[in-house]
Amino acid sequence: MPSQSEAPEVSTQPGAHGQRRGAARKRWLKPLLLVLGVALCGLVLLCIIPPRIAISASPPVSGGDYVARTADCVACHSIPGGKAFAGGLKMGTPIGAIYSTNISPDPETGIGRYSLADFDRAVRQGIARDGRRLYPAMPYPSYAKLTDADVVALYGFFMKQVRPVRQANVKSEIPALLSARWPLAIWDAAFTPRSSYVDKSGHDAAWNRGAYLVQGPGHCGACHTPRAISLQENALDESSSNYLAGAEVDAWYAPSLRGNMRTGLGTWSDKDIGAFLKTGHNRVGSAFGSMIDVVNNSTSYFSDSDIQAIAVYLKSLSATSTEKAVVYDKATTAAQLTRPTAQPGGGVYAGVCASCHGFDARGFSQYMPALAGNPVVLDDNPSSLINLMLNGSIPLVVNGTPDAYRMPQFRQQLSDQDIADVLTFIRNGWGNQAPPVTAAQVATLRKSTNPSSEQVVILRMR
Ligand code: HEC
Ligand code: HEC
Ligand code: HEC
């Protein structure tokens, strides 16, 4: 991404589908509500916070354009078809929508007047130049771990390589009564790390680079780590078994990235993880839902050594259960070929799904994912499966080329009961084992993800 000429392109990739990305963020805003009640005394914390940047920064690992890719700034600060980094992405929250801001270097409407210190404070501490506390929809609790060198490089990229765009910011729709930002100071004091990532001894350079990318710029935990009651991520690094243990982000479930044999990456090799991040496909699965944005705008641009570093780091995360790997059982395939309707859901599978995923549920590698032994099929939480069945998937765009195959939407074609049955069927055929899906679960998501409803701006898929 050598900047100017290509930067505007990135925002128009279908994967940068703003409204859906925004959906993944809406729960981040609840801390405001939660903290409001107890926050009066926190005014004390509103003192001016000095920037962290030290002038003698060592050189960045790579150019600022690359750092911006690792941090996926474009996914939130652009809208499909809009100018890169001009902001305007709508993010639904329980108390009203907010909009990402213009971070192009226009002095009037963007961040053209930001000094390096101002920029640092916004990115690593969540405080805008005018002193406004940013909502943690901006992932500064992760960016807090960025190195000085990477912040300097990012600043250089935004000031020198991004084209200034004059575009006024959109006012948030949060009612005035709830829009006070100072309670966030307390939330930040409690939950935002104060120092950059520090290499851990006892681990090699690749592991440490992977840990840095995952915890810092990549902000993988923002979606994959479960949140506590006050909505901070439950863990920020591998010292806790909650870290990257899987979480629901609105209607998608971001699965565990730990070593679990069924519901995590226990059966994935370094190469499987690398292929998934680089191309969105591997021999097991395909990226979909909010992970599409991540692959399209960020991980597909990572260098091979950074991809490998992430794989090394993820493979070092222990399993959180003693579950055994799925042992493939071909009885389900035999039943599909002889009497598919013998089980509820079996008929729908044979009629609607088998042409793409195979009667043997082994898929057609790399484009039609396998359903046997696939962690996303086996997760206790079926949100991703239901959402994908109802609404289908949007294109993966790697190296500028949208992939050819898409999971269709079955919203019109299949009833709640059909979807519940076929999902329960694939979750328990071919050796898989996972809790049944109910028609009521499908009905709930059918309503809250209806792409044609005016109410559901944030989940509209097409
Ligand atoms: C997950 C979405 C998301 C990502 C990724 C993200 N931001 Fe933001 N950012 C936001 C939102 C939303 C706001 C506005 C928050 C508010 O109004 O309180 C914001 C605000 C900002 C601001 C404050 C600008 C101003 O004066 O209003 C800066 C600077 C900024 N982001 C820079 C970055 C940079 C640099 C990156 C990449 C390293 C990045 N952001 C990545 C969502 C994001
Ligand atoms: C036209 C081909 C096609 C049909 C028909 C189809 N799928 Fe898919 N399915 C895909 C593709 C392609 C993906 C990968 C995601 C993407 O890129 O859209 C996918 C993804 C999935 C996934 C997520 C797996 C993963 O790891 O990505 C599940 C679960 C799934 N399909 C189940 C079903 C079920 C159940 C049916 C029948 C009701 C069905 N599919 C019908 C093509 C199809
Ligand atoms: C915006 C939310 C979001 C962010 C940020 C995110 N992910 Fe994901 N991720 C998801 C969702 C949702 C899925 C499930 C859909 C799928 O399999 O593509 C997923 C799936 C995955 C999978 C496949 C897991 C499986 O069992 O099939 C891997 C590997 C992964 N993510 C790695 C990462 C890494 C590494 C990062 C950080 C660089 C990251 N993700 C950041 C939402 C996110």
In summary, what is this structure?
The chain is mainly α and 462 residues long. It has 20 helices and six strands. The protein folds into three domains: 128 residues, no CATH class; 111 residues, Cytochrome Bc1 Complex, Chain D, domain 2; 118 residues, Cytochrome Bc1 Complex, Chain D, domain 2 (Orthogonal Bundle).
Strand and helix order: HHHHHEEHHHHHHEEHHHHHHHEEHH
- Integer average pLDDT: 85
Low-confidence stretches: 1-26, 33-47, 454-462
Q: Helical amount among residues, as a percent range?
A: 25-40%
Radius of gyration: 22 Å
Annotation field: number of helices? 20
Tally of DSSP β-strands: 6
Q: What ligands can be seen in this structure?
A: heme C
Shape, please? Answer: globular
Terminal CA distance reads 26 Å
For the largest beta-sheet, the strand count, sense and barrel status come to: 2 strands, antiparallel
Fraction of residues in β-strands: under 5%
The domain count comes to: 3
Structural category: mainly alpha
The side-by-side strand order for the widest beta sheet comes to 1-2
